[in-house]
Specification:
Elements lengths: L9 E7 L2 H11 L7 E7 L18 E7 L10 H18 L3 E4 L3 E4 L2 E13 L2 E11 L15 H5 L5 H21 L4 H8 L6 E6 L2 E10 L5 E5 L2 E5 L5 E2 L3
Parallel strand pairs: 1-2
Antiparallel strand pairs: 2-3, 3-7, 4-5, 5-6, 6-7, 8-9, 8-12, 9-10, 10-11
Length: 247
């Protein structure tokens, strides 16, 4: 790969329970090099945010995990890494076709349908993030999603197949660039993120505690908490406390 460290060491599998779980196990056994990347053609136990299942047909999509060591971030700033990774994928996908957006906290949308998801698992030591395992799933060449009308793929967006190896290299370069920039500070991070964020400064339809509510996204906190405005009142939500609804 044309990178300094991300993907320079790569282990690929035909079938794996979870690339995140495998990478986490490797890190528990011995110190691993930053940038180590695990890929799988198929995952038997693929996961999304907070235990959601990620189903993907064998050989059609891009499923991988990357090890980063952002010990320059304190745990209460861990969402900075999430923002950085989201922006890297956002940039990569928009090179293929403009129109992708980030949906808080960890999805990439096209025409309000999910094309990619991110799962970041951090190991904390001495009030610093020791290891971050960045799990990424992208619907690349999958055409059908059954009854799930909320998902799409690059194939459906572009009308043709995408070389998954090319896409992995592109994302690795974007991720490394964003990560090195984050090491230098957060200048421009929030403005870039908000410009890509679905619903930012706009009224969107959400579900909160079973109630349909018009919500305006005002921003995010460094911990990842979503800041909103509802009926002129400022309200904050953590993961899973608010659901975006699409027509």
């Amino acid at each position: 790969m044309e990178t300094l460290f991300i993907g320079q060491e790569k282990i690929s599998f035909e079938t794996l329970d979870s690339t995140n779980a495998y990478l986490k196990q490797l890190c528990s056994e011995k110190v691993q090099a930053e940038g180590l990347t695990i890929t799988a053609e198929y995952q038997t136990l693929g996961r999304g945010q907070i235990g959601n299942k990620w189903d993907s047909p064998k050989g059609e999509n891009l499923l991988f995990s990357v090890l980063l060591k952002p010990n320059f971030l304190s745990p209460d700033r861990q969402f900075y890494l999430n923002m950085s990774v989201c922006l890297a994928i956002f940039d990569a996908l928009n090179e293929l076709s403009p129109g992708f957006q980030i949906k808080w906290p960890n999805d990439l949308l096209y025409d309000r349908k999910k094309v990619a998801g991110i799962l970041i698992e951090n190991s904390i030591s001495k009030n610093r993030i020791e290891n971050s395992i960045i799990g990424i799933g992208i619907n690349v060449n999958q055409k059908e999603f059954g009854n799930d009308k909320g998902r799409s793929s690059l194939f459906n967006v572009l009308g043709n197949k995408v070389d998954r190896s090319f896409l992995l290299h592109l994302i690795a370069k974007k991720m490394e660039s964003k990560y090195l920039r984050l090491k230098q500070g957060t200048q421009g991070l929030f403005s870039d993120y908000y410009s890509a964020l679905y619903g930012y400064s706009q009224a969107v339809t959400t579900e909160i505690s079973g109630e349909i509510v018009s919500t305006i996204i005002k921003g995010v906190e460094p911990t990842g908490t979503l800041i909103t405005e509802i009926n002129g009142e400022k309200r904050k939500f953590d993961f899973k406390e608010i659901k975006f609804l699409f027509p």
